[in-house]
Structure formats: structure tokens, C-alpha cells
Design brief:
Layout: H1 2-18, E1 31-37, H2 39-53, H3 59-73, H4 79-92, E2 95-106, E3 111-119, H5 121-132, E4 141-142, E5 147-153, E6 156-163, E7 166-171, H6 180-185, H7 187-193, E8 198-204, H8 206-243, H9 252-257, E9 273-275, E10 281-283, E11 312-320, E12 324-330, H10 333-357, H11 363-374, E13 376-381, E14 384-389, H12 394-446, H13 455-460, E15 476-481, E16 484-489
């Protein structure tokens, strides 16, 4: 684990000082996020900065800066060591970005990366291994001109190639790149990256992500409903055998009173249950077991989209030589106005806090930091919430990109974190319902009473495809009370 952590840290350092590339973005019809970065310009800037800082004539300046920075950031890493590592790495010429990075990911979570750079593949791999030890998974190809990895991922194989002309990643058997629908959809994004002044351009199709999330939610809800249908079918069959007369209508209250059901079952999409003339139980939303009416993720309804994701439509980030803009498109003008007001308050608090903390830095560095903060403006235009940094020179913009991102994150992260937690809670709730239905079916089929939650028994008996896992690491347990059962999570309850 420690080796892996060191590898991730090294790769993150490389990306933060070099950031990725391609002569042309790797886009597809179903692309939901894309990033384009002028890696060469950014890498060269930081490499030159590092070379200057490690010169003997700058030793006193570096020592003073390190003293002040250590008190400000409270970290153990020495700035001198950090700059030396960057300078040493650049001097080895093992990995020198000479173009742009282009990265995209589609709705099936297939990544596509092109990073143009001058690379010595084998020497670079050996350099990385000198820090991390032997890398796993092992390269499938290991030569002077080509190092290649096959990275396992759920439902797919990802190929990572290190070649003299760059670093490339793609998914095996992925659809053709840069098709016409994809390029039309991303036309505005493409126009941004052709500007030579663009340092970073990123765009996230939040509507596409909503459809993807809603599709996964719909699949989960579909599975819960079908578990309910099986339980209702089994209850009616037992009722028919005992009463020696077929049921004509679905009366859950009667089934509960006669002990064929422990509790009334409901469709998670609010579909009504009924008994068809042929004796099959049907849901108004999901159909029957033999004839399901599941629509799929491309045709999900608005009701199937989780509430935390509904307001968001699109997110854009553009950093140029003299300005940076982050723009979030919402489907509610009033919400954009409210968030703009909240963002301004947050920004004021950040400025006050930063002013106090930066008092420990040298005056020149403090003024530079405050100039960056004063350049940040928050506004809204109709349904768009905008965070902009304006009126700065290229050097200040390059050196301050980390601060821009940090300030924007401080404003946006509280809302994103709440949305994430709610999404995880809803997913956990669905897991509990699936397991409750599976337990009901298990007990009907086996005539056994499950006293403690036995996920393996449910999986082996095909009552669930796979034991569900709480997204926040909670542990599931089974509780019984007066004949009824409930599955609870140690984190979320239920």
C-alpha cells in the first residue's frame, strides 16, 4: 500500500507540474467530461522556477521563504528538496511534455488519454520503480521504445502505453474516436482549446452524468421492484393452495392478515401493483417478471433522477494567460442567484482568513496572494453561476492556478459533499430493501428463519446477484420485531 501511495504521489506531482496532452482531443458521442491542458507551457514554467530557486545565489531567499511557508502551511516537506526533485527530474529528460494533454471519459466510464511528451519509456519506468519498488500490475510489454500495461477495471480492460512520443490510455474495444456527433456536441469546447492563450479547458456534461446516475438508480429500483413482484407472486401462490381457490385481486392487507406477507410492499418508483387475469403480478411502472418494461438509462424519467443532481446542467472551466473562469449552468435562475449570494459571503470569509494567515509570509508574497484573491469575482447571469479571476499577467496566473482552484473548491465543495452523502444514503437504503426482499424469498423457499444476516446464503441461493456494500463502509445487520424484519446499516440506519 505504501508503494502504491508513493507511486500515486509521484504521478500526481508529474501531473501537477506538467499536466496532460494531445494534438487533438479524444472525444466520443457519449463523452461526459473532457480536459485539455497546455502541458508544455505549464511544465516549462515550473521547471524554470525550480531551476532558479536551487541556484546558490538564491539560497538565503529560499531559506527565508521555506521558514515562512512552513509556519503557514504546517508541512514537513522542505521546499528546497521539492524544488531539487523537480529540477533533477527535468534534468534527466526522462519525461518532458512538449504538447497538450487531452483526456476524456464517457458514460460507460471508459477513459481516453493522450499526453504528448518526449519520453524514454524504459528509463522512465526504472526511475519510477526506484521510488516505488516493483510496480504491479507488471508491464505486459517492457522495452526501450515501449512500456505497456493492461489495467483491470470493472467490465473492461484499459491499455496504458508509454512511448517515445507520449503517454496514452484507452479502453480495449472502445468505439471510434472523434465521431461527428461527439464533435458537434463539443464544438464550443473545441473552439476554446484552439486559442494559443488557453492553459486549461475543462467541461463536464452534467446532464449526461444525471442520465448515467439515473440509469443506475433505475436499475437498482427495477431490481427492488422485481424482488417485490416475486414475493407477492409467492404469497398469492401459497394463498391459492391453502384456500383452494385462485385470488382474483391483489389484496396485500389480506395477505398480511393471513400471514403470507410480513409487511406491505411498494414500488420504489411509486408504481401500483395489481393481479392480472392470468394470475401474474404486475407493476404499473416496471411491468411483470415475464414482460418487464424497464426503459434503460437513455430514456429515464425526471422522477428517476436523484434530487441532489437535478439542478445541474453543465460545468465549464477555462484558464487563459490573463484570466480564469468557472461557469456552472443550473436549471433554476433563482437557485443561481441564491448560490451567487452565498458564494460572495464565502469568498469574503476566505479573504479574511487568508489575510490573517498570509501575514506570516514575506510582504512580496503576501501582496501577490492578496492580489490573486482580490481578482476573484463571483456573479450570476440568468441560470449561470460564474467564478472569475481577471486582470492578471501570465506569470501570476501560472503560479497562482493552485490558489484559484482551491478558492473555487472552498466555495463549491460544501454543496457537492452534501449531494454526495445524500446519494450514498439513498444507495444504501436501496441495498437494505433489496436484502429484505431477498430474505423474504429465502425464508419462503427454504422454510427456514434467518436469524442473522447471511449474505453468502442469499448469494448462493441466487436471491441476490452479489452481496451489496454500503458506499460509506457501513455494516449490514438483520433485526426482527414481532414477526417483521428489517435490514439496518451501522452508518445510515434504516
Amino acid at each position: 500500500m505504501k508503494k502504491f501511495a508513493r507511486l500515486v504521489l509521484l504521478f500526481a506531482l508529474l501531473l501537477s507540474t506538467a499536466v496532460l496532452t494531445a494534438t487533438e482531443p479524444v472525444l466520443r458521442t457519449e463523452t461526459i467530461a473532457a480536459v485539455h491542458i497546455d502541458a508544455a507551457k505549464i511544465f516549462n514554467f515550473y521547471a524554470l522556477q525550480a531551476k532558479e530557486m536551487v541556484k546558490p545565489e538564491n539560497a538565503d531567499k529560499l531559506a527565508e521563504l521555506e521558514k515562512q511557508f512552513k509556519g503557514f502551511a504546517r508541512i514537513d516537506t522542505k521546499l528546497s528538496d521539492f524544488f531539487k526533485k523537480i529540477d533533477d527530474f527535468a534534468g534527466k529528460e526522462l519525461f518532458l511534455p512538449d504538447g497538450q494533454l487531452s483526456f476524456s471519459i464517457d458514460s460507460s466510464l471508459r477513459p481516453n488519454l493522450s499526453f504528448k511528451a518526449k519520453i524514454k519509456p524504459l528509463a522512465f519506468l526504472e526511475f519510477v520503480e526506484s521510488f516505488t519498488g516493483t510496480i504491479t500490475p507488471h508491464p505486459t510489454k517492457r522495452g526501450q521504445e515501449l512500456v505497456e500495461f493492461t489495467l483491470p477495471a470493472p467490465g473492461q480492460q484499459i491499455l496504458l502505453s508509454i512511448r517515445p512520443e507520449g503517454l496514452f490510455m484507452q479502453t480495449e474495444n472502445a468505439p471510434a474516436e472523434s465521431d461527428a456527433p461527439g464533435r458537434d456536441k463539443w464544438a464550443d469546447f473545441l473552439s476554446k482549446i484552439t486559442d494559443q492563450n488557453t492553459l486549461i479547458a475543462a467541461e463536464v456534461d452534467l446532464n449526461g452524468i444525471k442520465r448515467m446516475v439515473a440509469g443506475k438508480t433505475a436499475n437498482t429500483q427495477h431490481g427492488v421492484c422485481f424482488t417485490n413482484l416475486r414475493m407477492l407472486t409467492a404469497a398469492i401462490e401459497m394463498y391459492t393452495m391453502d384456500k383452494e381457490t385462485p385470488a382474483k385481486t391483489l389484496d396485500q392487507k389480506q395477505l398480511i392478515a393471513d400471514h403470507y406477507l410480513n409487511a406491505e410492499l411498494a414500488c420504489p418508483n411509486h408504481g401500483s401493483y395489481s393481479l392480472l387475469p392470468d394470475g401474474e403480478v404486475s407493476c404499473a411502472v416496471h411491468g411483470t417478471i415475464r414482460q418487464p418494461s424497464h426503459t434503460g438509462s437513455d430514456k429515464v424519467s425526471e422522477a428517476e433522477i436523484p434530487a441532489p443532481y437535478k439542478p445541474f446542467e453543465n460545468l465549464r472551466l477555462l484558464i487563459k494567460n490573463d484570466q480564469a473562469t468557472a461557469e456552472l449552468a443550473l436549471n433554476d435562475k433563482n437557485l443561481a442567484e441564491q448560490w451567487s449570494a452565498i458564494g460572495k459571503q464565502q469568498l469574503l470569509s476566505i479573504k479574511t482568513m487568508a489575510q490573517n494567515q498570509m501575514g506570516q509570509l514575506p510582504e512580496s508574497e503576501r501582496q501577490k496572494g492578496m492580489k490573486m484573491l482580490d481578482a476573484i469575482k463571483i456573479s450570476h447571469d440568468e441560470n449561470k453561476l460564474r467564478v472569475a479571476v481577471e486582470g492578471l499577467d501570465e506569470k501570476t496566473m501560472l503560479s497562482g492556478m493552485t490558489g484559484i482552484v482551491g478558492a473555487a473548491a472552498a466555495i463549491a465543495l460544501p454543496g457537492i459533499e452534501n449531494a454526495r452523502k445524500l446519494s450514498q444514503k439513498n444507495a444504501c437504503r436501496a441495498n437494505c430493501r433489496v436484502m429484505m426482499g431477498a430474505i423474504e424469498m429465502y425464508e419462503l423457499d427454504t422454510s427456514k428463519t434467518m436469524q442473522t444476516l447471511d449474505g453468502k446464503a442469499l448469494e448462493d441461493g441466487k436471491y441476490i446477484k452479489k452481496q451489496p456494500v454500503c458506499p460509506e463502509g457501513g455494516v449490514y445487520s438483520l433485526e426482527r420485531d414481532s414477526g417483521s424484519i428489517s435490514v439496518k446499516c451501522s452508518v445510515h440506519g434504516f
